[in-house]
Design goal:
The chain is mostly helical and about 200 residues long. It is about 80% helix and about 0% strand. The chain contains eleven helices and no strands. It has helices at about 1-5, 10-30, 35-45, 50-65, 70-80, 85-110, 110-115, 120-125, 135-145, 150-155, 165-195. It starts with a helix and ends with a helix. Mean pLDDT is about 80; it is low at about 190-195.
């Protein structure tokens, strides 16, 4: 038993994290936490000094668990903590979530990806990850805010890309798109509130 745990420790940790985040996502849906920016804000701020940690976990969760509305969580970060801190918190937590996606995929393989996202979406990219140009494609996809980032992070775990190369792309390319999203949410909402006021 001990040998099994030692040999599969990363898989066990990945499974534990994924299960925990799925449970939290389910509870959030059930309680209406993700219904709107206001409901999410009220929920997080109800934890007082722990609000930052709850936000951080929620942001990681929206990357790892498909279907959790990331826009609400990302907007909360910049509206509550300000544009600079909000960007930093969003950036770090989303990068962590992206790393977790890769590790989950490496641990559990194709079957889990197909179960989560469906055969049709998997088939669109299953040959792409075998191409020599995939690293460049992935880097551009992460840099530009138009691709299905979370799915690509999962499926990249099935490619030959090394963890070091993957992490480098995530930390270098995630920043600009998260910055743009953060500023858009912050100044967009600020503009609307000014006009309404």
């Amino acid at each position: 038993m001990i040998d099994f745990i030692k040999k599969n420790k990363f898989s066990i940790i990945s499974a534990g994290i994924f299960t925990l985040l799925c449970v939290l996502a389910y509870l959030g849906y059930k309680n209406g936490t993700f219904d709107s920016l206001e409901s999410f804000r009220d929920y997080v701020l109800s934890y007082g000094p722990w609000a930052f940690l709850i936000f951080f976990l929620a942001n990681i969760m929206q990357v790892v668990v498909p279907g959790v509305p990331g826009g609400i969580i990302l907007a909360f970060g910049v509206v509550t903590f300000g544009p600079l801190k909000g960007f930093i918190y969003n950036y770090i937590s989303i990068c962590i979530g992206s790393i977790i996606n890769f590790l989950i995929s490496k641990s559990f393989g194709q079957d889990l990806i197909v179960k989560i996202f469906g055969e049709e979406q998997f088939d669109k990219y299953k040959d792409k990850i075998k191409e020599d140009s995939y690293e460049k494609f992935f880097a551009w996809a992460i840099l530009l805010p138009v691709a299905p980032d979370d799915f690509l992070c999962y499926i990249t775990g099935l490619s030959n890309m090394t963890f070091k190369k993957y992490a480098k792309i995530i930390f270098l390319c995630k920043g600009p798109s998260i910055f743009l999203y953060s500023m858009a949410w912050y100044y967009g909402l600020d503009f609307i509130m000014t006009k309404l006021g």
